[in-house]
Design goal:
The structure holds two protein chains of two kinds. In chain A, strands 2-1-3-4 form a four-stranded parallel β-sheet, sandwiched between helices. A four-stranded antiparallel β-sheet of chain A has the order 5-6-7-8. Chain A has a two-stranded antiparallel ribbon with strand order 9-10. In chain A, helix 4 runs antiparallel to helix 5, helix 4 packs antiparallel against helix 8 and helix 5 runs antiparallel to helix 6. Helix content of chain A is about 35%, strand content about 15%. By secondary structure, chain A is α/β, with parallel strands linked by helices. In chain A, strand 5 and strand 6 form a beta hairpin. Chain B is built from eleven helices and two strands. Classes of the chains: A alpha/beta, B mainly alpha. The interface between A and B is large, with 52 and 56 residues.
Chain lengths: ~350, ~300
């Protein structure tokens, strides 16, 4: 029976974040960028204690009727993605059929912070601006990098923000869409956020699927996720290299090159060059008709501090493209610092 | 010139509502077909045809979440205004020879005004939920919109020159011998870019985009989301119909009735916009502004020059 895909928001720990991208290949499931659009919250991987409250907040942002599925509690057969998708569809059908079973709120329905009661309008800033009324930062004018005085908005991004790798947390100050400062939460300022490491080709294809999604190419993201699933299932799939080449040819007509060129320049390499290196590595591995591990983007490893410096001054959209282009290894970044 | 038949007010309301309801549904189906075709997924005609109805049913049963301290008046007004402006734009477009809801002699101006006011409605959509990503998306959209608005103005004026009238009906009449897509070849691609901008699609998907976690729609759920998506598709229909009338000869065509030609051409433009939405990657606002002022605007001037020389 034909049905509409169930809309799912994924709250994934860094150890499971790539795996869940494979769900994009499933016709009965659609990953959405915000919990407000979702019927089901999928929790996947290890959620650290520091992220529990954020997870509860995400949960409470889903509109009723809503349901929760947990990846690691699903008993999988041969195909874990199929099993997870079936569980998600089942959860959605059950809760839509009986809305009284909708998952109740986890946090008290109250303001996150008391009204500050400071300043002429009580928000704790100056005049009508600034401060943190009810715990949410309000923009306040400040000098920007060009010497102009513009509204400055300070935000925490992550750890469950759809456009960034799962588990990544960053404190950012924006003026307009331009990043004035950014600081990543990691084990140390010299923690490498990426490295010239070897990973399976299926994982690289899952990175591609997410990266295409962020660039607005969701239909192409489905194609990349399907290739990743085939790659993970079969070591010897002679059609895989041909189909990847076909996907890559079609990607050339999407204007992606124009969107990524000259974004996030470092050592003479921009985001387009990093994408090309990723795609070349995938193609080389698939041409060998196996799923050998492929090396990462081939660029020099970059530390969190260097990445922050690189994207300061970029528009948020270019900053996200730059971060994604590096295929950040979040577990290594947050738990295993490598001192230079 | 054909005798123009002015519709009575009740009939006009029925006609505009019918055009928008059918148009929004068809545009939604086109989105499904475009996505599945490009993604390489199985395309079941019955499933695609019923998809918008199923989505509408699901969203109508979903909670519309109220955000923390929203601007509720603007939150309600934004989709209503966007939809209303799309309806106003449709009224000045002739549906077939001699049939137009509002035979306004300055139809192009009214269409342009609706398009300009749409920017305000879209910004309200970003502003009203009191949410950072929605706000950033709203500001970003306005920055881009100011650039494509100028394109639209020059392209539509150029189309009006051969007709020696600002009435869209007169512009269609002026294409009896030669369509504007041939006479002014730069006009159609430039106007398609404007259409992508107003409906925040494809390369200009800078409002409700994935890089901002859904951007202006980050807080939308239930009926709020359904209303916004409906308004967006209605605006796509208005621009597709205007494109068909102003550049593709409107009702002109062999054998088939004029109204059918108009519907077919409008559908073709809707399909093109739907596929561009799926097939083209988003570019950053800064790049588009540079492109608009450095390349597209000079092309719009050139298009105006071509139209002027042609009219001599």
């Amino acid at each position: 029976m034909a049905v509409t895909p169930v809309e799912v928001f994924v709250a994934a720990g860094s150890d499971r974040w790539h795996d869940v991208q494979a769900l994009r290949a499933h016709e009965l499931v659609r990953l959405v960028p915000t919990p407000r659009h979702a019927t089901v919250l999928l929790v996947a991987g290890t959620i650290p204690a520091s992220a529990r409250e954020a997870l509860d907040r995400v949960h409470d942002q889903l509109p009723h009727p809503r349901a929760v599925a947990t990846w690691d509690e699903i008993v999988a057969g041969n195909d874990v993605v199929d099993a997870v998708a079936s569980e998600i569809v089942g959860c959605a059908h059950r809760v839509m059929a009986d809305p009284s079973t909708s998952s109740p709120g986890r946090l008290a329905d109250e303001e996150p912070n008391d009204w500050r009661g400071v300043g002429p309008f009580g928000q704790g800033g100056e005049g009508m601006m600034g401060g943190t009324p009810y715990g949410r930062a309000m923009a306040m004018t400040a000098d920007d990098r060009d010497g102009l005085s513009l509204d400055r908005l300070e935000l925490r991004l992550g750890p469950f923000l759809g456009q960034l790798p799962g588990g990544l947390v960053a404190d950012v100050a924006l003026q307009g869409e331009v990043i004035q400062s950014i600081e990543f939460a990691c084990a140390g300022s010299k923690s490498f956020v990426t490295a010239d490491r070897a990973v399976p080709v299926a994982r690289r294809l899952l990175w591609l699927s997410h990266a295409l999604h962020v660039q607005g190419l969701d239909a192409f993201a489905v194609g990349a996720a399907r290739l990743a699933r085939r790659s993970a299932r079969l070591d010897d799939d002679p059609g895989l290299a041909r189909d990847f080449a076909s996907l890559r040819r079609r990607m050339r007509w999407t204007g992606l090159r124009s969107a990524l060129r000259s974004v996030g320049d470092r050592d003479g390499r921009d985001t387009l060059a990093r994408w090309s290196a990723h795609l070349d590595a995938i193609a080389a591995s698939l041409d060998g008709a196996d799923s050998r591990p492929v090396s990462a983007d081939g660029s020099m490893p970059i530390t969190a501090a260097e990445l922050a410096e690189m994207i300061t001054g970029l528009a948020l959209t270019d900053a996200v493209s730059t971060i994604i282009g590096f295929d950040i290894d979040v577990p290594a970044m947050t738990t295993a610092p490598v001192e230079a | 010139m054909n005798e123009v038949e002015q519709l009575s007010a009740p009939l006009a309301i029925v006609v505009v509502a019918a055009v928008l309801v059918v148009g929004v549904y068809v545009s939604s189906v086109v989105d499904v077909v475009a996505f599945r075709s490009v993604a390489g997924q199985r395309l079941r005609p019955g499933s695609a045809a019923l998809h918008p109805a199923r989505v509408a049913r699901r969203l109508s049963r979903q909670q519309s979440v109220r955000t923390e301290r929203p601007d509720m008046i603007l939150r309600v007004l934004a989709p209503a205004a966007f939809l209303g402006l799309a309806a106003a734009a449709v009224t000045v477009i002739p549906l077939s020879p001699g049939i137009v809801v509002a035979d306004v002699r300055t139809g192009i101006v009214l269409f342009g005004a609706a398009q300009a006011l749409a920017i305000v409605a879209i910004f309200f959509h970003g502003w009203s939920p009191n949410s950072p990503f929605a706000l950033v998306a709203g500001y970003r959209f306005v920055a881009v919109a100011l650039s494509y608005e100028l394109l639209s103005m020059f392209v539509l004026i150029a189309a009006a020159i051969p007709a020696e009238s600002l009435s869209i009906g007169a512009i269609v009449e002026s294409q009896a011998g030669l369509w504007n897509v041939i006479r002014q070849p730069l006009g159609l691609p430039l106007f398609l870019i404007v259409s992508l901008g107003v409906t925040f699609s494809g390369p200009l998907d800078l409002l409700d985009s994935n890089d901002l976690a859904g951007g202006g729609s980050v807080e939308d759920s239930g009926m709020q989301r359904l209303a916004w998506q409906t308004a967006r598709h209605a605006m796509r229909i208005a621009f597709a119909a205007c494109t068909a009338a102003v550049f593709l000869g409107g009702w002109h065509g062999p054998v088939l009735p004029g109204g059918l030609w108009m519907a077919l051409k409008t559908f073709a433009v809707v399909a093109l916009l739907g596929f561009l939405d799926v097939f083209v990657a988003r570019i950053s606002a800064e790049r588009f502004v540079r492109l608009a002022w450095g390349v597209l605007l000079p092309f719009a001037f050139l298009n105006l020059l071509i139209a002027g020389v042609g009219a001599l």
